[in-house]
Write the structure tokens for this entry.
Amino acid sequence: MGDAGQLISSAAEVYDEFFLPALFHAWAPRVVAAAELQPGMRVVDVACGTGVLTIEAAKAVSPDGVVVGVDLNPAMLSVARRKAPDIEWREAPAEALPLDSDDFDAVISQFGLMFFEDQRAAIREMSRILRPGGRLVIAVWDSLEAAPGYAAITTLLDRLFGHPIAELLKAPYSLGDSEALLSLLSSSGVIKPEVRRVDGEAHFPSIRSWMHTDVRGWTLADKLDDEQYELLVSEAERELRRFVTSDGSVRFQHPALIASATKP
């Protein structure tokens, strides 16, 4: 992953506690379903983070299946190991997976591809470790324009702190184009990939919780000091109120693209 995808230890804890329920939990069963996981399968989760998808996959392939979670970030893996010590967790870049070729029934990856240093190399590696007939499933976020809450906060960050800070929040949406994603997969050697758009929703308990999660636990981790953070919260509570529901929580559309292919 590039810098935008890396988190220090404290940020990994915030990511796991706040971001998983806000954005990621709902997607793990969808990716597992797209991969057609069954009991007894051998599966690798690439860019596993703190393990939300890995753990879901382990449930699907139990009791006799094997799931390996791979991530470059030791802080993320530390959290993952505490949550699921029985799963095999490996620290490695997606571009150089320490796994045998043609050895797994499925390779899955949820919201990591956008951050890889060499996306084509990573996709080739994921394909390499798949057995013939195995399934490759990769989820990425749809475009920034399709996520109105993040489009709005990006505009706010640009006004308050300048273009470089705003650009950090755009990174997760860099593959949010179906045709471009298909082209990336095909040019990386994936045969007959398919991409479908799936609706989703972001949900935070409050504006302050949303800002805390982004600034302390995701792409903006440790990029703003305390004074800047309080300014952001104050301005967000005024400018982003249209995303607040009657109970004070925040909800907005946050769709994803799910790419899949079967290795010949």
Remarks:
- The two ends are 28 Å apart (CA to CA).
- Residues 214 and 220 are 6 Å apart (CA to CA).
- The longest strand covers residues 130-141.
